[in-house]
Amino acid sequence: MNQRNQSSLDPEMQQRAEAMYSRDKWSALLILAVLWASLIYTYIAVPHGFLSSPIGVVLLIAGVLLLVFNTSSVFAMLAHYREDRDHIYGQDLRNLDLNRHRLRELALRPAHVDTDPGAP
User: Fold this and answer.
1) What's the first-to-final CA gap in the chain, in angstroms?
2) pLDDT score recorded for residue 2
3) CA torsion angle for 63, 65, 70, 76 (degrees, to 10)?
4) What does the radius of gyration of the chain's CA atoms come to, in whole angstroms?
5) Sign of the C-alpha dihedral, residues 108, 111, 113, 114?
6) pLDDT tens string 81-112
7) pLDDT per residue over 25-54, tens digit each?
8) Those residues with Cβ within 8 angstroms of residue 74's Cβ, 6 or more apart along the chain or in another chain
9) SS3 state of residue 9
10) Using CA atoms, how far apart are residues 25 and 32, in angstroms rounded to an integer?
């Protein structure tokens, strides 16, 4: 467990991982807020006579359960991402850097190399 507290990333990668985590966190919270707003709007917009019927009660309970489970899962996901940030985002950052390096190499290749169908 002590190994989890130690970061396996260099300071620059840690900063990039923190930026990615922050962006993911705010995106998840925004989507969750949109879900809450849309279900609250739906509850307000639907005539309340419908909600007193058995189907309306079932839909109301389903909506509440949807909000509860989605909210708890988003917060659990964010906590997990915070704990394993270095591992999760470290892999992403290494792959992004590798792809950028490959694209840079391809951009620097002479044009005649690209015409070879067997070229990588």
Assistant:
1) 42
2) 40
3) 160
4) 24
5) positive
6) 888 888 888 888 999 999 988 888 877 766 66
7) 999 999 999 999 999 998 888 887 877 889
8) 28, 29, 31, 32
9) coil
10) 11
Asked whether the beta carbons of 21 and 89 are under 8 A apart, the reply is yes
Nearest-angstrom CA–CA distance, 27 and 77? 12
- Nearest 5°: CA angle at 53, between 49 and 56? 85
Write down the residue that tokens 């849309």 correspond to: 38
Give which of 12, 34, 30, 20 is closest to 85, Cα–Cα.
Answer: 20
Give CA–CA dist 91/80, Å, rounded.
Answer: 16
- The pLDDT value recorded for residue 23 is 94
Joined together, the tokens standing for residue 4 give 């989890």
Q: Which residues lie below 8 Å from residue 4, measured CB to CB, with a gap of 6+?
A: 83, 84
Phi then psi for residue 24, to 5 deg, are -65, -40
